[in-house]
Amino acid sequence: MLSKWSWIVFNFIIYTSTAPPNEAHAETKAFLELIELDYEDICSNTANAQWSFIISPSNKTLLTWEEQQYEYAKLKKKLRNEIIDSKKENPKAQVKESFQYKYNLIEKPGDALLNNEDWKELVDFAGVVELEQSSNKLQNYSREDAEYLLSHNGKAKTKQAAWNAWYNHMTPLVMNYSNNLLFVAEAAQENGAENIKEYWELLSGHPNGYDKINSEWSRINSLHKKIVKFISANLAQKYKITANDTLPYLLGNLQGYDWTDIPSDVLPYSELIYDIKRNLWKKKCVGKSLYKTASNLGTILLKQVPQAEFWDNSEFNGQCPSRLLNFCRGKMRVSTCSKASVSNFLRAHEDVGKILFNQIAEETTPVLNIVNRYSGLEESISTLFGILSVSPAWLKHTHLMNVTDNVSYQEKHMIASLMLTALNVFPRLAYYYSADLWRINAIDKNITDPTDLMSSWWKYRQEYEGMSPITDSPTFLDDGYIVRNKPYLPKILGIILAFQLYDYTLESTEVRYDNITGKLINGKIIKMIQQGGADDWQAVLNNFLDIDDIIVDPLISYFTPLEEFIEENENFEYKSGATTDKELEELEKHILKEINTPSTTPVPITTTNQITTKAASSSYKKISNDKNMQTKVEKSLDSKSSVYIQEDKPKKSETNSSIDLSVDESSSTDATNDAKNDTPKINTHKAIWAVSAVLIAIVVICIIAIFGRRRCRKIPKNRRYV
């Protein structure tokens, strides 16, 4: 016997096959809206469960998240099967072309079509891996410990030990992953795709996407190899090691594909990078303050800022790397840390790009598009924000880079800006590409042995990224996209497209020096995001911007000055920045102390322009220097070598206190409060207004009743109720 949904869909198709065109169109639209409402409800529930898991990782929150994932997959299967069964009941019924895209999203929702046991295994494995990473008990290292050692001044041996300690414990999990990887082939079959490539191209909204990247990769790879060789030679001089390929544990972080923490090590103009790093700390560009700075660029580029709900519900004093979560219908939250770095500065701007993209597209983008597909267009807007964030114009606008009319300094600013962008873009492109090719090859050749799987992983990383493995450590298990079998293709396409949008917006691929304010608003791009969400993103690009193909020419043109600089300065003499690194670490300690130390001074009454923020739930205090850390690592990690420890702090706001080091006075108290506060406060002003409004309403009602009664008495009884 058919279910309730089967009868609804069956009757709907019968009606649409006989009803007048306009009425059938309206019925189809209403029917799809009902499905989207179901998707929205469970999408919100799943996102809330995942958010709880991110903020408070535990077995309990993990179990809740897993249960929501099971329900999500169950709903997707149900709606998909109902539509297919209904079509079988009435094969003559035709779906209007304007609704075909949404039907395709429902019928081919991706990995959720796996059988129940396989889906459960995939979800459970992803959750267990993330819980282990958050446990802070891995080989006496927390992620924060390892990230601190890798991104700060220290010995190569110390960094290598931190890298190995973090990843080696994951080796036993490789066998589970090799089994889960094969689920991609099963999901491809369930979604009607002939192979893995076709399946991931379906989810990415770009048919023949891999062929497109393959044909363009040689041009990207040529420039990427020059950058890798340049960086490798300079790191070899700094750490007194043999120059070979770039070593992953010397790149500033555990991921190995974000190199934005090392620009001062690879440029002859390192003083410019040090100035940026120094100003980030002086201006307290951390947490909420950093995202507010990024939102200012959103005002200029898209005439939008993140909604109040984002600021109220996000976690700005958590852990890094940042996590951005989509709650559907334009609602997003971020969990990030209070750390001032070039990497976090870039991530904040890219996150704001995604947030604003989803806000603007809220009314026209179906939830089906968000949960069942991966948008290259969203990634391109995000990357565009990243490109602009480290342009000389924006760095000067935010007072992170000194303004000068000296032509020689402008050239240095340009090279510094290009290098920052290159360290953000090229490692990611190479990593994303190698990760997808590695997985496709492993599935096609049925590579399941853990040793062979790790060996092939590093073979691909070395070939495409220029990475030389220390050990065959399973770094892929620290990647949520890989663990959950998600394709990187849309990210690759989105990054390349971002430079086309940069060219489209500024009508040039030259790095901008002049004032950035008011010169970036492009009505067509805003209109494209507003009205184009209900179709696949390639069609949207063509319809609104006349971009019918994704090409690498703007990307290559943008980096041409950097390429010429590298060729001319291939063997520049490295100058040690150890003294400046120590100064920066001291500044970091002082600013963190200022941010995290509660003040006994009463908090002044805030103005209406200030946003109430949350009080910091925990703070971190540096308890050991690099020398002590190295000693502990060299003793085979016998004892805990934390860089920070958590302390309970009174949840009160604080005022700025003076420090010995020079801090830019232009930074406002809001920046400090935004970095500290992380607990919602009762808004007494709203409460007073609410009570006052109720009292006024009662008085007005009484007055009306009294005068109404008097007027009624003056009217003759026979006219009183006419």
Structure description:
- There is one protein chain.
- This protein has helices spanning 4-18, 21-55, 59-89, 97-107, 116-133, 143-151, 156-168, 174-181, 183-190, 196-204, 209-239, 270-282, 287-302, 308-313, 342-360, 367-372, 376-389, 392-397, 407-444, 450-465, 480-483, 489-506, 523-531, 537-545, 553-558, 560-568, 578-596, 626-634, 669-676, 684-714, and strands at residues 323-326, 332-335, 619-622, 644-647.
- 43% of the residues are buried.
- By secondary structure, the protein is mostly helical.
- Residues 1-21, 602-670, 675-687 and 709-722 have low confidence and may be disordered.
- The termini are far apart.
- The protein is built from 30 helices and 4 strands.
- Strands 1-2 form a two-stranded antiparallel sheet.
- Helix 1 packs antiparallel against helix 2 and helix 19 runs antiparallel to helix 20 (450-465).
- The chain has 3 domains: 4-107; 144-152 and 195-568, no CATH class; 684-719.
Question: How many separate helices?
Answer: 30
Total domain count: 3
Number of strands: 4
Task: Look at the structure and give the mean pLDDT.
Answer: 80
Unreliable runs, pLDDT <50, ≥5 residues? Answer: 1-21, 602-670, 675-687, 709-722
List keywords for this structure.
single chain, 722 residues, mainly alpha, 3 domains, two-stranded antiparallel ribbon, disordered C terminus
